[in-house]
Amino acid sequence: MMYLRDATRLAAAKLRVRPVRTGVVICIVALLFAGISLIAFVFAGIVQSLRDFSNEGLSSRYIVQARPIVDASYMFSNADLKEQMRVKTVSLVAEKKAAAKRLGLAYDADTDSTLPTMKGGPGGENDIMANFSSPIVQAAAKEHYNALQHVGYDDFKKLAEAAAAKNIYKSTYYDIMSGSMYMTGGQQTYLQPIKNGKEIYADSQKQGEMMGPTGFDTLASSGWSYFDEDLLRPFVLPGQSLAIGKDGSVPVIAPISVAEAILGRDKLPSTASAKERLDYLVKIRSDIAGKTAQLCYRNPASSQLVQLARDQVREMSANKGKRDYVVPALQYAVPTEPCGEVKVVKDTRTASEKQQANNELMFKKTYENYDDPQQTITDVRIVGLVPDMNFEYGMSVRAIAASVLQSSLGNGWYSPSRAITAESVASKISPTFEDSTPMGRAYYAEFETLAAARKFVRETSCSAKSDMMTEPDRPDTRVAKCAGQGKYFDSKPFGSNASAIEDLRQNTWRVMKYVTVVVMALTSLVLMGVVGKIVADSRRETAVFRALGATRSDIGYIYIIYTIFLSFGITLVALLLGAMGAAWLSRRYSEDISTAAVLAYNAADVHKKFILFGLDGTLVLGITAVIIASALMSAFLPLLTNIRRNPIRDMRDE
Amino acid sequence: MEDKQLYAKQLLQAVGGDIRAALTELKRVAANTVSQKKYEPKSQEVVIRTMGLQKQYKMGKATVSAIQDVTLAIHKGEFIAITGTSGSGKSTLLHLIGGLDQPSAGDIEVRGQNLRKLSDVKLSRFRNRTIGFVFQFFYLQPFLRLQTNVEVPAMFARTRRDRRATKSKATAEIVGLSDRLQHLPRELSGGQMQRAAIARALQNEPDILLADEPTGNLDHENAVAIFELFKKISTEQGTTIVVVTHDMALAAIADRAVQMKDGRILA
What we know:
The complex is a heterodimer.
Chain A: H1 4-15, H2 19-53, E1 62-68, H3 74-77, H4 79-103, E2 117-119, E3 128-130, H5 135-146, H6 153-162, E4 167-174, E5 190-195, E6 198-199, H7 217-222, E7 224-227, H8 229-232, E8 250-255, H9 256-263, H10 274-288, E9 292-298, H11 300-318, E10 330-333, E11 343-347, H12 351-367, E12 375-386, H13 397-405, E13 413-416, H14 425-428, E14 442-447, H15 450-460, H16 478-485, E15 489-494, H17 498-537, H18 539-547, H19 552-601, H20 617-644, H21 647-653
Parallel strand pairs in A: 7-13, 8-12
Antiparallel strand pairs in A: 1-14, 1-15, 2-3, 4-7, 4-14, 5-6, 5-9, 9-12, 10-11
Chain B: H1 2-14, H2 19-36, E1 46-59, E2 62-75, E3 79-84, H3 90-97, E4 105-110, E5 113-114, H4 120-129, E6 131-134, H5 146-156, H6 161-175, H7 190-202, E7 208-212, H8 220-237, E8 240-244, H9 248-251, E9 256-261, E10 264-265
Parallel strand pairs in B: 3-8, 3-9, 6-7, 7-8
Antiparallel strand pairs in B: 1-2, 1-4, 4-5, 9-10
């Protein structure tokens, strides 16, 4: 076979024949590949930008969060528990009836919502089911859950240590009620902000936007978690620390909207430009750092009294001057001091009425876990910010970017674990039922590499699906299936999107592969026609070369190189068009996405850019290889036909 | 030149000014001149020998005999013209000799090698090393400079660049195109292009040069010059040259002319 350089020379000369047709072919085919190139450039840009941003927050760390897998259906469908509670209900009703009689109180078991069982369930109205809001049921369930094997912190620690985790953590989560009446284990806890010396009650708080809770409402919606300092440190604002303040203030990392509420700033309109958003963020960060706010903790009894006092004031005001209106015999005053005690301003009750009230109180304390009213002020100090939950953007580029990029602790309130002291509000707030059992616990293991973290997720996370949604009345089989797998946790990456980026990359590759196959097929068809025509038009030339001594291999060689040249042309145009498209997209959307990324990552450098245009050598080589492969594939048949022809016939036809 | 003009004048007078009749008469005289020429081969070595050669083509359902029982011997260094009317089979014979086509029957031996027994690769090598082809329409590569065009057969022979450059300059010298080596084909005249094609045919120093109507696209003056060039190459380099032409006058320049009609050799 002839030398490569000679074949190249002849192929290059051939490219100059019919340059317009060649150019048109190159452009048409390149258009097909330009789409793939565009995706590749944008993808490379995204990956590059994500890497840049991954130095922010926890993104450069490989942390796995694991939640124990427990049978949540136990409390609803476990027959033993139901029977046990039925027996307890019978004895409790008898006991309560006797006590009520003794105390001179009316008691109706049918309306008592604190009993261990309630009517209803899978068997209809005549059936009974365990009453989850009963302390007795919760105690029994707690006992059951806490006796479970394999799901404790020590079990997790052993697994993490065996997987060479470099750090192991756990978090405590407090679900804070904010005026809501739903029960959390018979205990309601209230934390309400104090602004300008006034306690802001839940029903008078400025409501967040329609899309979701903001400001202090986030405390109720997203809760207050206590983490190891090590996990919180990346979110601390410059100059701030996670230590308890000298004034006793609890350091808090809170959503940005909390900062807005404390500073009395109005939220930026969703139409604000990227620059306005960044400027706003810079200002908020500098203004909120170290600012304190007061929260009022009221236990359920205190909260109910406040509510009663406020209702009375409203009622008396509404009925002022009405003859038939009877003012309450026991009147309370709404506290004038923030987080003040609710005091009785007037008590015209008779002695027997007072005795009756005392008896009711005693009955409640004995059978319904009633505590005397308590309230206390807690100072919180904002030392860091996390983004708010992404509600407000809708389906904009910014919203999509924010949801993809979301990489932080979450959207709630966060404080260091050491802030849980005997005096701190945390010690007063009762953990929810879930948090007092393995059900609501979360453990964390940090690894050196993404691969190690992913491996740990694979090895510890159970893949079986729960059937609670499809068959809620039957015991969930997931626990048994997971036990069969020897996996007792739901594990996932935490605080970082390194794993998500890797998944994104793999999924993109998967999609790209299919797209590429389709484009390759299309391109091959187009090219087959075009190359076939070019080869057919070159029959005379082939015949002449054959007459001059070229073998079939030489001819094939020349055309293969010619096709490769053609492919390079296509590649060049495709990459150029793709790059232009990606550059345009980047220019058009980069600012918006950068802002979203800065907010999502809570980036220290607010001027960091998220670009949609990047160069990845492997991708460029891949595209080139695909184009060359399609071109060669398409050239194969026409070429084979051409070199098999009798040269003299072609010459004679000419 | 004056003799030729006088002869033409007399001829036209003899045929009463009818140019067509004059041309026919000219061809008759030329043919007689050729056939009457006493042929003495320069060498006794036969380089091309055809024996009972036949070539048939299928044209639809019909079979056309392009060559019928052609037996011919061509000696080393001989400059032979194959003449005949269009469709007489002269080009087919040339292609068979050059190994571009295979006979339906009979044998062709070139330098003792039976072409029918050669594989495709060996035939290619044979065409590359032993044969030099010259075509009516030159078939130069339009975007290659003359020197590269001339070197194309050497590329297929895997000749080293320095050697083929030396050779291409030498062949350009032979055909009188030394000063045009860096030109593109479109910058040359028809005669120059054909001389370039001859230089290309000579690049690998073939024993045999086959030319198919090499002057068909040239004016008379250039045509004569090309034939003179063939003569010179044949004489000076000992190359065997087989030229197909329908021009009897040009054929007269060759050492020998064989005339073909209906696929057979007449003389």
